[in-house]
Amino acid sequence: MLHLTPTPITLWLGISALILIGVLAVISWRRSPHRRRTAILESLRCLAALAVVILLWQPEWRTTLHPETKPRIAILWDDSKSMTTADAPLPLALSDSSAVVTRAEWVQKALAADLWKPLQADGANELIIQPIASPPKDAAPLAGTDLEAPLTTLLDKETNLRAVILLSDGDSNIGQAPVAAAQKMRLRGVPLFPIPVGSKTRLPDLDLLTVAAPSYGIVGENVQIPFTIRSSLDRQVRTIARLRDESGRERTKELVIPPNTEIYDSMLWRLEKEGAATLELSIPVADGELVASNNSRKFNIAGRPERIRVLVVETLPRWEYRFLHNALTRDPGVELTCLLLHPQLGPATGKNFITEFPSKLEDLAKFDVIFLGDVGVGSGQLTTDQCALIRGLVENQASGVVFLPGPQGNQATLVDSPLSDLLPVVLDAEHKTGLPETLASPLNLTTEGRKSLLTMLGNSEEENPDIWRRLPGFFWHAPVVKAKGGTEVLAVHGNRRGKFGPIPLIVTKPAGSGKVLFMGIDSAWRWRRGVEDLYHYRFWGQVARWMSYQRNMAAGQRVRLFYTPERPVPGNNLTLNANAFDPNGAPLQQGNVAIDITAPDGRTQRVELQKNDSAWGAYAGRFKIDLPGAWKLRASVVGSDDKPVETTLFAQGVEIEKTGQPARPEVLEEMAKVSKGRIIQPNQLADLVKEINALPEPRPLENRIPLWSDWRVLCALVGLLAIFWTGRKLNGTF
After folding, report:
1. Are 111 and 165 in contact (CB under 8 A)?
2. Which residue of 130, 231, 453, 517 shows the fewest CB atoms closer than 10 Å?
3. Following DSSP, what letter does each residue of 402-456 receive, concatenated?
4. In this structure, which long-range contacts are made by residues 244-251, counting pairs with CB atoms below 8 Å and at least 24 apart in sequence?
5. What gap in Å lies between CA 559 and CA 585, rounded to an integer?
6. Domain count of the chain?
7. Eight-state DSSP code of residue 377
8. What distances in angstroms separate CA 539 from CA 89, 287, 583, 667, 734, one per listed residue?
9. Helix (H, G, I), strand (E, B) or coil at 345
């Protein structure tokens, strides 16, 4: 049956247009010497005009489908993994005792009860009972609960649906929002009666949520393993975190976990050998804890021997420079180059010394870290162009720069140079040469500093604060006003405060692809007192490795590859960054970089990286991690015969469907409200039958085809106009 829905304006416009076209057709017919042919053409004109006007009135072709079966009631029950959580008390309608069972057991008892028989009394309704969100046989971690798809499928399949009963915990974690299916049910006149199963409060549990370990570390050095634990226990817990490798070597750390909160902590692990190793971090099951499966996590980390290329630029050979030079020279993992621009004697010469700043990009691009001492922009020091090169190296090539100001105040000239944005602090222009101290002043670690690997001078985080308290103080500090936004302050002046609070003296910040460190004292060499090189060498070695970490994630002769996040989880988009070089070592100007990716299941794909024309041989791209496990990456310059850079990243298998999580009845309540149903609490099961019996019979299904937007109608109209126009040409009428 055809239904029209014109507005008053379109109705009268259409009628007026039809009358006008009809009058013009009659006049044309009367004036034509070939009345028969003209009558046919004008009839086609009027027919086309009538079709256009009808389409303007939004016609719909409606057909009504009368059901041939009895009204049906669908009972859907959630069969997902979260339903194995044991937090569902049995109501009196299902059991004489108030025992607490799993949500799945609760559902099975409800399905086996006699609650549903009245719905089938006298053949009034047919019942459809089926599970939803059943986990796959291989229990893939990406499996989850989709409440929207089963309801939509049910509506498409059933033509005589009276109501839907849903037994679920409301935990929908994949697919579209469940309320979308509820809206479709409302349009069909099918109400939803959800029955929430499970407790709204979390089970007593300690959950090791994440382990954010780096992808690699230096053999013989400590790496920091951060982790997060969430407690839903109502009491404080004293426990032990245990980190163990495949050989049985382990480290432990005592933890105090407050009730109902998350804690962030970390452990140090020393890498003893090269190659990948599998570690496991675990915490014991606490008294009263009901879920033990989430108390441990395994992850992989690779040990590598590294050689970090460092450039130190200084003017006067002050004590800080001399001991820094010794520390980096004696570090077996560091290849040191020095540029000493003495204001009176000129550039120094000797082993590991160069006499001028690298003038070519390929010469500068080899350095992983640059230390800028008491040096600035001026005669006999750095030029503006050289500062721009350093900035480009940090931002585009993932290198690091360390600012080490001194009492000459030369670094104050960097404020007006291209390095200005890299400085993580605001300097006081009135005290360019810094501020002296009459008494030795200590450095106080901030909260971030106590957790940072840069400031970790002990073998454990417990002893680290004591070590810093015992360190000799400093007698001079840089004229720092405050730290800039987006920085991380690791240590502050222990005795002085400025108008913005404690004076920040050790500050870090990211800069493009690289990192920046500001060290506002020149007395780190005094940390050798009584302990020789124990803390001094360790600190600068950690600085060099931290600054160059990202740059050396995967490095070869022609390509250097790094990516974020380091520990992706399935569903994350991985950002790939690469720096490419020509055979001479200069940043690649012409050419493409491709990444060949092998998934844990053996699938392969190639990602062509996009070149950043404003950067030095920088390329970037993205792809999606969809499986847990080891992903192999091979980066190469397209068309090059050089050996590709290979690395492996490990995607942590985070299960979407978890046990022990609280139920989400608010999701079910919203679905019921939208569909014009009602949420039924477990103690109201007897009222469910009354609610459904009071519903009217399902209304016949009505199928609507909007003709005004149907392509077939449009084709017919175009064909009609083509016939009319062709007929006019043949009739000789223009």
Report:
1. no
2. 130
3. EE---TT-GGGGGGGSTTGGG--EEE-GGGTT-EEEEEEE-EEE-HHHHH-STT-
4. 244/279, 244/280, 244/282, 245/277, 245/278, 245/279, 245/280, 246/277, 246/278
5. 10
6. 5
7. B
8. 57, 41, 36, 52, 93
9. coil
Residue 379 and residue 357 in one domain: yes
Residue 372 lies in a domain: yes
Identify the CATH number of the domain in which residue 232 sits: 2.60.40.10
pLDDT band at 139 (very low <50, low <70, confident <90, very high): very low
d(CA 355, CA 38) in angstroms, rounded, equals 99
Do 572 and 671 fall into the same domain? Answer: no
- Same domain? For 195 and 116 the reply is yes
Closest by CA to 239, choosing from 216, 205, 188, 278, is 205
Last residue of a domain, one of 529, 552, 575: 552
Residue 656 lies in a domain: no
Which of 504, 521, 552 represents a domain boundary (last residue)?
A: 552
pLDDT digits (tens, 9 = 90+) for 698-723: 666 666 777 777 788 788 888 888 88
Residues 112 and 216 in one domain: no
For residue 417, what are its two tokens?
């140079």
Q: Tell me: the pLDDT tens digits for 194-226?
A: 999 988 888 788 888 888 887 777 777 778 888
Give whole-number Cα distances, 714 to 18, 47, 550, 706, 720, in Å: 19, 14, 59, 12, 10
* Dist. CA 25–CA 45, nearest whole Å: 8
The sign of the dihedral angle between the CA atoms of 358, 359, 363, 364 is: positive
Radius of gyration, CA atoms only, the chain: 37
Assign 675 to helix, strand or coil: coil
546 and 561 belong to one structural domain:
no
Beta bridge partners of 298: 280
Q: What is the dihedral of CA 674, 676, 682, 684, to 10 degrees?
A: 150
CA distance 7 to 4: 10
pLDDT tens readout for residues 270-283: 888 887 788 999 99
User: 424: Cβ–Cβ under 8 A, 6 or more apart, which residues?
Assistant: 403, 483, 484, 487, 507, 508, 509, 516, 518
Confirm whether 657 is domain-assigned: no
pLDDT in tens, 646-660: 888 878 766 677 777
Pairing of strands 250-257, 237-245: antiparallel
Whether residues 426 and 516 share a domain: the answer is yes
Same domain, 519 and 638: no
Shared domain for 473 and 542, answered yes or no, is yes
Length of the chain: 734
In a domain, 123, yes or no: yes
Q: Which domain holds residue 498?
A: 308-552
Residue whose entry in the numeric block shows the structure tokens 């002296």:
436
